[in-house]
Specification:
Layout lengths: L1 E6 L7 H8 L5 E4 L8 E5 L2 E5 L11 E4 L4 E2 L1 H13 L5 E5 L3 E2 L2 H14 L11 H9 L12 H22 L15 H15 L3 E2 L1 H10 L4 E4 L23 H6 L8 E9 L1 E4 L12 H9 L12 E6 H11 L3 E5 L10 E9 L2 E3 L6 H6 L1 E7 L18 H14 L3 E5 L7 E3 L8
Parallel strand pairs: 1-10, 1-11, 2-5, 2-10, 5-7, 6-8, 7-9, 11-14, 13-15, 14-18
Antiparallel strand pairs: 3-4, 12-13, 15-16, 15-17, 18-19
Helix pairs in contact: 3-4, 3-5, 5-6
This protein binds inosinic acid.
Length: 436
């Protein structure tokens, strides 16, 4: 069967931990969108692993697949593979031949364009993600399979690279030589570097759709591991302050070549409060002592960029939108331990905009910026020994009131509740793969 996990908020909800836990039941673990903008921190056997490209589930001996909906920076991928091997993990990895490749000029354009955009900047991770997806849609992208065909790659680069240099120099007015970007626009150097990457990854390159479907035909269980979160989805998120891929469940089908009806379960991962790396409005944002508490206790610093994350109270209009777009069959609530010591604990149950109550977030960011949160307050909880929390009933009653309210509002059963970063700090109520 196929189980998809997606972020219900703005990324960093704790998907990495559940990808790791659920991958114990899965034979194949698939990334279907995004690239090394994602960062999953997984604690396994007491060791901390930070992964960007490789599905975190490979730490459990499954086969990892990077699907066609992903964008791949091969230099980063190879570095990540080497890092894992040095620590005794030799992952079984397949990379979709149809996935698009992040090129050096994409990274340059990402930075140059963000600088030029002013208020429209998304605060990207600077990894070249957006420009790579732009070239995919513009039908001028480099795909993984092109790295295995040096002549085709050269032909593409000879057309594309001068257009990119002209964009940077003539549109954005940035001289590539003077700014240290010349290597990214040197066709010979880029060609040589990427042909070499092709040689290193050649053994992993497959028709990923055929591969995953065959494994499913053979009865294997597949975990589709979403990156970022629903509100960062290019279609359903907070445009333009978002990423350039479909982070929602539809992306799991188009980004892998697995039919939508094979995706049996969709589990929304949501954090008990909100965090955000990047720009744009955030109605429940906390810039006070409570915000400092969430950042410090929740260690809210970006896995990929190290940036301090912005934080806020749980935003139900955002999560209701996510529950509808993805049709969650189940959900996971993470980080309730981080709220310990706060009183009251607040949930934004709706917005008020121009005297009207909104249950779900608007598409218009000017409107979203003007939304006033309507809060519901819960009594806090304190002095909890989270290590001693083994079952749901061990959670303090006030925290349970909070959890049960959210569960009812989300409209999907909470399959698990996470009470700390480690695997053991998890209350599992149901396994989406149906394991007892
Ligand atoms: P990009 O994906 O690098 O183009 O960044 C676009 C927006 O998505 C920025 O606001 C980023 O901060 C945000 N973003 C991208 N990846 C992640 C992630 O894994 N977690 C949280 N935010 C992310």
């Amino acid at each position: 069967m196929g189980v998809t996990i997606v972020g219900a908020q703005l990324g960093d909800e704790g998907k990495g931990k559940f990808a790791d836990i659920y991958s114990e039941s899965a034979d194949v673990i698939v990334r279907f969108q995004g690239g090394n903008n994602a960062g999953h921190t997984v604690v396994a056997n007491g060791e901390e692993f930070k992964l960007h490209h490789i599905p975190s589930g490979v730490l459990r001996d499954g086969t990892g697949v990077i699907g066609n909906g992903c964008v791949v920076d091969p230099g980063v991928l190879l570095e990540e593979l080497d890092g894992l091997r040095e620590r005794g993990v030799d992952p079984d990895l397949r990379v979709a031949e149809r996935a698009h490749v992040i090129m050096p000029y994409h990274r340059v354009i990402d930075g140059v364009e963000e600088d030029a955009k002013g208020d429209m900047a998304a605060g990207t991770t600077g990894r070249g993600i957006g420009p790579t997806y732009e070239d995919k849609v513009g039908r001028r992208g480099v795909r993984v399979l092109d790295l295995l065909k040096p002549d085709t790659l050269r032909e593409k680069l000879e057309y594309v690279v001068p257009t990119k240099q002209a964009l940077v120099e003539d549109v954005f007015g940035i001289d590539v030589e003077d700014n240290g970007y010349a290597d990214a626009f040197d066709v010979d150097a880029v060609h040589e570097e990427y042909v070499e990457y092709g040689e290193h990854i050649a053994d992993t390159v497959v028709d990923a759709s055929a591969y995953i479907n065959r494994r499913m035909d053979e009865g294997d269980d597949v975990l589709f591991e979403g990156a970022q979160g629903t509100s960062l989805d290019i279609d359903h998120g907070i445009y333009p302050y978002l990423t350039s891929s479909n982070t929602t469940v539809g992306g799991a089908s188009t980004g892998t070549g697995v039919g939508a009806t094979r995706l049996s379960e969709t589990v929304g991962i949501m954090k008990a409060y909100l965090s955000r790396v990047g720009t744009g409005p955030l109605p429940t944002e906390l810039e006070d002592d409570v915000g400092d508490h969430l950042v410090e206790v929740g260690e809210e610093y970006g896995t990929t960029t190290g940036r301090r994350r912005r934080v806020g109270w749980f935003d139900l209009p955002m999560v209701r939108h996510a529950a509808r777009v993805n049709d969650f069959t189940g959900a996971v609530l993470t980080s309730i331990d981080v709220l310990e010591g706060l009183d009251p604990v607040r949930v934004c149950e709706a917005y008020e905009l121009d005297g009207e109550r909104l249950e779900s977030m608007p598409a218009d960011m000017d409107e979203w910026a003007r939304c006033e949160p309507v809060y519901r307050d819960f009594d806090g909880w304190d002095d909890v020994d989270w290590d001693a929390v083994g079952t749901y009933d061990d959670i303090p009653p006030n925290a349970r009131d909070y959890v049960e309210y959210l569960e009812e509002q989300v409209g999907a059963p909470f399959y698990a509740i996470s009470v700390g970063p480690a695997r053991e700090q998890t209350i599992i109520r149901e396994d989406p793969f149906g394991q007892p």
